[in-house]
Amino acid sequence: MCGIVGFTGRREASPILLEGLRRLEYRGYDSAGMVTGTGNELHLRKKAGRLAELAKHLAVHPAPGCHGISHTRWATHGGATDRNSHPHMNAANDIALVHNGVIENFAALKQQLQSAGVLFRSDTDTEVLAHLISHYYQGDLTAAVRQALALVKGTYGVAVMAKAEPGLIVGARLGSPLVVGVGEDGTYLASDANALAGYADKVVYLTDRQLCALTETDWEVRDQDLSPVSVSVSDIAAFLGEGDAERGDFPHYMLKEIYEQPETLANAMRGRLESDSATAHFGGLNLGAQQLRQIDRVIMTACGTSYHAAMVGEYLFEELARVPVEVEYASEFRYRNPPMDRSTVVLALTQSGETADTLAALRESKRMGHTTLAICNAVASSIAREADGGVYLHAGPEIGVASTKAFTSQVCVLTMLALYLGRTRHLSSTQGQKIIDDLHALPEMVRKALECHDRVKEVAAKYADAKNVLYLGRQYLYPVALEGALKLKEISYIHAEGYPAAEMKHGPIALVDENTPSVFLVPRGNVFDKVMSNMQEIKARGGPVIAVASEGDREVSAVADDVIPIPDVSEYLQPIVTAIPLQLLAYEIAVLCGCDVDKPRNLAKSVTVE
Ligand code: AGP
Questions:
Q1: Catalytic residue among 46, 405, 599, 605, which?
Q2: Whole-angstrom Cα distance, residue 321 to residue 424?
Q3: Exposed, middle or buried: residue 154 (CB in 10 Å: 0-12, 13-18, 19+)?
Q4: Which of 1, 331, 333, 351 to mutate to test the pocket of ligand 1 (most atoms within 8 A of CB)?
Q5: Nearest alpha-carbon partner for 175 in 360, 37, 29
Q6: Among protein residues, the one whose CA lies closest to atom 4 of ligand 1
Q7: Residues near 159 by beta carbon (within 8 Å), at least 6 away in sequence
Q8: Is the dihedral of CA 328, 378, 444, 413 positive or negative?
Q9: Would you state the pLDDT for residue 27?
Q10: Which of 327, 349, 382, 403 to mutate to test the pocket of ligand 1 (most atoms within 8 A of CB)?
Q11: Residue among 504, 469, 440, 473 nearest 574 (CA)
Q12: 605 assigned to active site
């Protein structure tokens, strides 16, 4: 996801902009840049590659001035090159802008501008905006930005400056977050409040189609007709990710976040489990017991790892609450038109709360009049704010692009939600109390699961040169097999596929040979014997078998080539506990492969483009 940071005030802007971008770089990007203003001069500095490249460039070519805008770009249109990085400027180099989002009709707009003689210097959609604003500019930047954006189809979060209006920054949003920050030294604009921590004291979140105008000492928000609107000003502390986003003495954010999971699971449960009524409760669901009882179907929609968490949720809701669930990829769901009646609830799962496909699916559901809920980590994110109700993960900022603690917290929240729903239906207080007791013991079980790390390192060393890996599990653990495969793919670039363990007989087993390891999720449970049979089928074809199994399980050790032990937990908590060794396995293999674990190639932490 691209990042925007702007500042106008009484301090040099460049260091503030660079530090703000540094806090956003975990989201994934491939170039960075800034423009600052002094008097009536604009200073443009931008470089492909990591932020360090821009910092090196600035050391030689400083960007002076007390106001500026900056950007980290995750390429959509046009490669990751100096000329495609933001900011982009008009032909006269007196208007500059940075942009998050996608201009879907940029080709038509570009053609019109080129027909009018405009020469383009990049392959990006964003540059169209710079020329459009220039076309409408007659001394009022806010008005020119509004007129240009009125022609745009797509999504945007923009920050714009003009040479003729020193100290002014104009912002606007549609489908891509933008927040105004107010501090002692000036006013700020950013795509994420975390970039402003320590600088701004107050924040104002723009909503879609609003614009803002910032000066060194003042700010205002207007609607799309440029009428001033009153907005709520909040303390920034309420929106900063919990827990420190610093890496501590871990070599990577991802490993820190894997080891944080006992604490993040405790945070997810804190204050939500009620032993006296043997149920769970949530402050932000905005649905009472009566309304919950009337829910007769849930559609869960998400992307990536969150989709895998939703798949676990399907098993949980059906077993614990007897509520039918469908799980849909958000990118598919938003274009389908499934028959849904008024008692169907749509539940979006998202760590960032900004994933464009999930946001679009949520909005489509709201347009159809359905109750929408969200399970989300990022406080005040677009999805969190637009859903009718929801549950925050309280997992703290997840910096590693590969999601780990968010996955286990999502599954934990889904377990509590299933308990809550179940207790409004058929679950007895005794059954409810058993689930609560298991949940209370969960952080300690995860702490025990983390003790497999040394064993995982041995397994990683043995299989790090594999070119293909199968992940196999049944029931609750089939989604975890998918998640384990995704973890390995996205950080080590090794091809991996997850399947229901029985399904590999229907084709994928043809892939099995002595160079294709299969990771089996085979803790004790009601399908243990079936999975053991599947393991034998792989062994019979010479395929190496890595088993994630209940500690001390001799039956598994007799068959598998390598065993990674985990503590025994109830089956509905096995998805969380079995995820831990798979996260560690992907991490250790990626490290051995020399990959950039926290910022894998081609990936962004939050995909805000469709
Ligand atoms: C997970 O490791 C990936 N980074 C990716 O699949 C991610 O889960 C997906 O993009 C959804 O993101 P969200 O949870 O922020 O919506």
A1: 605
A2: 8
A3: middle
A4: 351
A5: 360
A6: 402
A7: 4, 6, 69, 97, 98, 169, 170, 171, 178, 189
A8: negative
A9: 67
A10: 403
A11: 473
A12: yes
Gap from CA of 605 to ligand 1 centroid (Å): 7
Residues in contact with ligand 1 (CB, 6 Å cut-off): 303-306, 350-352, 355, 358, 401-403, 490, 606-607
The CB density around residue 53, as the number of other CB atoms within 10 Å, is 16
Q: Distance (Å, rounded) from C-alpha 588 to C-alpha 280? A: 36
Largest pairwise CA distance in the chain: 79
Q: What is the pLDDT of residues 570-582, one digit of tens each?
A: 999 999 999 999 9
Q: Is the dihedral of CA 478, 479, 482, 488 positive or negative?
A: negative
pTM for this one?
A: 0.77
CA nearest neighbour of 178 among 197, 196, 157, 160: 157
Give the Cα separation of 171 and 215 in Å (integer).
12
Give percent of the chain above pLDDT 70. Answer: 98
Amino acid code (one letter) for 70: S
- Please tell me the distance from the alpha carbon of residue 319 to that of residue 422, in angstroms, as a whole number: 9
Closest-CA residue, ligand 1 atom 6, reads: 304
d(CA 68, CA 70): 7
Q: Catalytic: 505?
A: no
**Ligand 1 centre from 304 Cα, in Å?**
5
Query: Cα 209 to chain center, whole Å?
Result: 23
- Tens of pLDDT, residue by residue over 406-429, are 999 999 999 999 999 999 999 999
pLDDT bin (cut points 50, 70, 90) of residue 561 is: very high
* Whole-number Å distance between alpha carbons of 367 and 431: 38
